[in-house]
Amino acid sequence: MEEKFLQEEEPEAEKNSRFLTKADLNRSSLSKSYAQFELAKLKGNRFCAEEKLKSKKAIDKLFNEGKSVSQNGFTLVYLIGPLLSFYPAQAGFTVPKKFFKHAVDRNRIKRITREAYRLNKNLLYEKLTGQKQQMALMFVYKGKELPSQEAATKTVLACLNRIKL
């Protein structure tokens, strides 16, 4: 009898779940994804896995069709369009090996840039949710020196403000 009870309870638990599954993302419309964004706000100021731009197709499309903004060695490439996520934006970070031969330096720059984006992403999210749009972003650092945290934060904020929505 206990097994039958557990089997009946499982489908209800899945329906009442607060979190989206991959199947839900494929079935959901864009308007439903913005309703689910309130759940994403509960996570706070984190930069979670769903916010990371990982899809090779999306990255190729971003570099082929996207627009760019440059400021103090940082280049921000962006593309407005639907994503398979209920977050308004997905971001990626890269540093070319041409200027920084050591992986330690490249990783440090990416870490600094991710932190600067994490602290300022709410400004971008408010603009995008107000217009019901989604965006893919890629930050590329082409400077020749290691940036400080303060300089990176100011530059990332300036790049985000220069995006034309």
Fold topology:
Blueprint: H1 2-15, H2 22-27, H3 30-41, H4 56-65, E1 67-71, E2 74-80, E3 89-94, H5 103-131, E4 135-141, H6 149-161
Parallel strand pairs: 3-4
Antiparallel strand pairs: 1-2, 2-4
Helix pairs in contact: 5-6
Question: How would you describe the overall organization of this protein?
Answer:
There is one protein chain. Strands 1-2-4-3 form a four-stranded mixed beta sheet. It has helices spanning 2-15, 22-27, 30-41, 56-65, 103-131, 149-161, and strands spanning 67-71, 74-80, 89-94, 135-141. The chain starts with a helix and ends with a helix. The protein has a single domain (2-161), classed as 2-Layer Sandwich (Ribosomal Protein S5, domain 2), CATH 3.30.230.10. β3, α5 and β4 form a beta-alpha-beta unit. α5 (103-131) packs parallel to α6 (149-161). It is built from six helices and four strands; from the N terminus they run ααααβββαβα. With 165 residues, it is α+β, with helices and mostly antiparallel strands. The longest helix has 29 residues, at 103-131.
Principal-axes shape call: globular
Low-confidence spans: pLDDT under 50, at least 5 residues? none
* Average pLDDT reading: 82
Alpha-beta content class: alpha+beta
Largest sheet data: 4 strands, mixed
Radius of gyration, in Å, reads 19 Å
Termini separation comes to 58 Å
Order of helices and strands: HHHHEEEHEH
Counted up, domains total: 1
